Amino acid sequence: MRGAVPRLSLTLLAAESGARLCAIIHYLVRGQLGWFGLTIACLVPGYAAQLLSILWFRADGHTPGCWLLALHLLQLGLWKRYWDVLRAAAETGGCAGEVLAQLGDVCVLRLLEALLQTLPHLLLQTYVVVAVDPAGFIPGVSAGLSLLSLAWALVSYSHFTCLLKPGHLSPPAAVILCLLLWRTGMLGTRVLALVLFARLYSFWVFAVAGVHWLLMSFWLGAQQTDIVAQPCRWRLFNCLLGAVYIFCYINVRPGPSRTRVAVFYAVSAWNVLYSTWM
């Protein structure tokens, strides 16, 4: 495993955080307290990933000190994890199993943070640019970096799952670039479609998203996804993943996924036709 993936992940995470901070200051300076408050609120769900990171540190035998707790309180816990991966990769040449385990932890945590924090921020800033301030440079830059960071979180997660397969090496840079373009295009068009629908039909967007969420949740339940053993947690997992499927497809089951991807895009196409009919 080379250090390019965690290094790029850390760079995009820093760029996204910097742009989000600029957006917060932008709304505060202009007196747009409503958008300021909503942008701050988008930070709150990210603490779920920070809390999980602390719990995983404890599970690995590392007692969190005050400085580590402070980093996670400032939402810098994943920054430290990326730094640990880069340092361990430099010491071992990037091939040790411990490095791969650390990379897996931070990829999963970053994907969780991106879905809980970056995605709501992306929707909010895109709506501001489309419906409120089309000439807003800072919200536009923040939305663009959030989109790129979210797409890369999905790509880095796919990259890690590829490394876990026996006999599989790290995908070439061209493959990773194609995956990034695919994820960026899919997320960008989906987010833009939802924002435009919300701009035209207001709260009807929740009806469309709700129908899509229900269809995806029932479909996941029909597949008997066994990634979570307990029935209650299994149902909750399917419901949460169904909400994610409003925006993108994430493969959580082993084996070929062509059929599942085809069903996902078929439902998405039906959802677009339903939205147009409404």
UniProtKB/TrEMBL annotation:
<feature type="transmembrane region" description="Helical">
    <location>
        <begin position="127"/>
        <end position="154"/>
    </location>
</feature>
<dbReference type="InterPro" id="IPR018629">
    <property type="entry name" value="XK-rel"/>
</dbReference>
<comment type="similarity">
    <text>Belongs to the XK family.</text>
</comment>
<feature type="transmembrane region" description="Helical">
    <location>
        <begin position="174"/>
        <end position="196"/>
    </location>
</feature>
<feature type="transmembrane region" description="Helical">
    <location>
        <begin position="203"/>
        <end position="222"/>
    </location>
</feature>
<keyword id="KW-1133">Transmembrane helix</keyword>
<dbReference type="Pfam" id="PF09815">
    <property type="entry name" value="XK-related"/>
</dbReference>
<keyword id="KW-0472">Membrane</keyword>
<protein>
    <recommendedName>
        <fullName>XK-related protein</fullName>
    </recommendedName>
</protein>
<feature type="transmembrane region" description="Helical">
    <location>
        <begin position="33"/>
        <end position="57"/>
    </location>
</feature>
<keyword id="KW-0812">Transmembrane</keyword>
<feature type="transmembrane region" description="Helical">
    <location>
        <begin position="234"/>
        <end position="252"/>
    </location>
</feature>
<dbReference type="GO" id="GO:0005886">
    <property type="term" value="C:plasma membrane"/>
</dbReference>
<dbReference type="InterPro" id="IPR050895">
    <property type="entry name" value="XK-related_scramblase"/>
</dbReference>
<keyword id="KW-1003">Cell membrane</keyword>
